[in-house]
Amino acid sequence: MTEIRPGVLRTPDVRFAGLPSYPFAPHYLDVPGGALGPLRMHYLDEGPAAGAPVLMLHGNPTWSFLYRHMIRPVAAAGYRVIVPDMIGFGRSDKPAARDAYSYDRFVGWMGAFVDALDLRGATLVCQDWGGPIGLRILAERPDRFAAVFAANTLLPNCEAPPRGVADWPGPGIIAWIESCRTSDDLPVAELFARATVQRPADDVLAGYEAPYPAAAYKAGMLEITCGIPVDPSSEGLAANRAAWEVLECWTKPFGTAFSDGDPATASWADIFRRRVPGAAACDHPVIAGAGHFVQEEQGAALADALVAFLHKAALQTVAGEQHRPD
Questions:
Q1: Is 231 noted as a catalytic residue in this protein?
Q2: CB 56 within 8 A of CB 287
Q3: Could you tell me the residue range of the domain that residue 302 belongs to?
Q4: Total count of domains within the chain
Q5: pLDDT tens across 278-301, in order?
Q6: CB-CB contact of 14 with 4 (8 Å)
């Protein structure tokens, strides 16, 4: 176990050698870790430095490896593609104690990352936990973002129908939370494979396992699930509702591209399209042939949809500026 200082683990670099379709150079910056001291966050930074930034946020139990099929096509279209690993995931530092993590801390760490890079005019691309974390960051820093592209994600708020989702969280989510609360390990590859339409190759599954050489490195994975707001007393619920207030006034482009094989998030695509004004002028393709981790199974198709969205969003922005009163 590689402990860089008391209570903070760092995965050895050798674990990331030779991963399939992941040739990208690592970049690092520090975010505040409170009593743990500065925590090193890893990110990828590809494409032209002067290009409009596209911030791609992963969820659980994945890391930046998830976006490897999308990075080059989006960068080749002229955009600066930034893909961080959340603290506790991927090549980023991993506090060893579960109580070092919380929903609000994940938001705080990623918000500090966005501030450190001083992102402006960014498009948020979010899937899984990338939505609850990224949309809160956007709500707190709306001037830093120009658009949102959401895939297989959600922003839970414990509302009743018709504004919320009638069957969420449901018994499956509750059981998943309880399993993580009472476990001290996660079978990363198997969890990932269960959420796909077709089981990925062994070397791909090994790529998702690479950052976690032992159970001690998985505290963040386990604890993030316990942070899902499922009742009115949940941490982060008030902030999620505040984020919805921002989103319900969001007139900048908001696109969705959910897959056709993810029942866990399917109903949320319509929620975003109905509740966010900026969704009205956007296309909302359904990506065929993918489960929850659409970037893995249909990364090329999702990248094509994203580039089309980015180009259209840029045109909408220019048109809006031309019609803005002096």
A1: no
A2: no
A3: 3-322
A4: 1
A5: 999 999 999 999 999 999 999 999
A6: no
Question: Is 27 an active-site residue?
Answer: no
Partnered with residue 148 across adjacent β-strands are: 124, 254
Please state whether beta strands 53-57 and 122-128 pair in parallel, antiparallel, or not at all (unpaired). Answer: parallel
Known catalytic membership, residue 262:
yes
CATH number at residue 311: 3.40.50.1820
Q: Which of 45, 85, 93, 128 is catalytic?
A: 128
Q: Which listed residue (27, 262, 284, 304) is catalytic?
A: 262
Mode of pairing for the β-strands spanning 94-95 and 80-84 = unpaired
Element (H, E) at 76: helix 68-76
DSSP character string of 159-208: PPTTTS-TT-SHHHHHHHHHHHHH-S---HHHHHHHTSSSPPPHHHHHHH
When pLDDT is averaged across residues 263-275 and rounded to a whole number, the result is 93
pLDDT at 315 over 90: no
Rounded distance between C-alpha atoms, residue 238 and residue 72, angstroms = 37
Give the separation between CA 49 and CA 202, rounded to whole angstroms.
Answer: 35
Question: Which residues share a beta bridge with 84?
Answer: 43
Choose the catalytic residue: 292, 311, 323, 326: 292
Structure confidence at residue 159 as a pLDDT band (50, 70, 90): confident
Q: How many CB atoms lie within 10 A of CB 243?
A: 22
